[in-house]
Amino acid sequence: MPATSISSDTPVPVPSIHMIAVGQIPASSSTCQATPLSSTSIIPQYHLQSEFAKLLDASVSANTHKSHRAGMAAYYKVCKLLDCAPSPPSLNSVVQFVLHSSSSGLAYSTVRSYLSAISFHCKLQSVPDPTPEFLVTKLLQGMKRLKHKADTRLPITKTILHSIIQILPIICTNAFEATLFSAAFSLAFHGFLRVGELTVNTRKGHHQNTIQIHNLSINQDTQSLLLSIRFSKTDQFGKGTVLQIDRQGGVACPYQLVKKYVSIRPEGSGPLFRHFDLSPLTRYQFTGVLCKAVKHLDLPARSGYKSHSFRIGASTDLALKGFSSDDIQRSGRWKSASYKSYIRIPKF
């Protein structure tokens, strides 16, 4: 059975931006300074500027900020190289940027991300946005057709998951680590989880968006796990979702493996998955042990197995069992048809 998503009953207000930053690119969006754009600039009063910056900074995720900074930096660099006026962005400067990016070998997805940064900047500055123009969209479509690369990530099927869990005691340093990774891998598969929901980027990094121990409830009566996911890629405002993951049976049963791990997990708050020394499970460690297991099993095309392969495998598993598109989309918490790219139907 697929993981069941239960929306949280706690309403969370969705913030909106009522003021527009003008005059310069905010530090959170780019390190490049722009010239004043109009005489109608909305500049918050001095005593409200810190609140203005705080709200604007919180309006998008940290990853989006990072993407915007990279996009605007690339745009300004190309404009300087080609001697194009960068601000405000014009149809000419954006077209030149797309052409230069394509000829430099940048991927379609990267250029699309950079154009999103330019679009965001234009809206922030209250100036016309040239990125939706017909010529720009057609150039981008041309890039997609010519530079499209197939997703080579492979699905971790249930059979492969069973094999991985069975050899973890051999490749892990001790029994505790084998129990930890068995639970993490099984939960990643059966919960359709993103690796960022289970791990932190660095041992000392922020982990408030990682699943915490208090987000997990083990119901022994129904033999199921209730997992509260406060934030996710498609839930930036923290509306929240509760996943119910039932007992599956077999060596990869998420209920049994997570229950066993929790029974030996060091006491205390913090991320659900952490080592015996209390340090949180990192993305690097998660991926590293997975690669080690795949190599040990000598799977063909083993470079295709990534941390996202659990989510791909779970989606493919439901599709092969005949579950509907709505079931798959709901289980993976997708908000669009992007779930289709996760399904790998074998060709005979």
Automatic annotation (TrEMBL):
GO molecular function, one term: DNA binding
InterPro entries hit by this protein: DNA_brk_join_enz, Integrase-like_cat_sf, Integrase_recombinase_N, Phage_Integrase-like_Recomb
Record keywords: DNA recombination, DNA-binding
SUPFAM superfamilies tied to this protein: DNA breaking-rejoining enzymes (SSF56349), lambda integrase-like, N-terminal domain (SSF47823)
Keyword check for DNA-binding: yes
Keyword DNA-binding attributed: yes
Any one GO BP annotation for this protein: DNA recombination
Top-level lineage group: Eukaryota
Name recorded for this polypeptide: Uncharacterized protein LOC111136816 isoform X1
Source organism of this protein record: Crassostrea virginica (Eastern oyster)
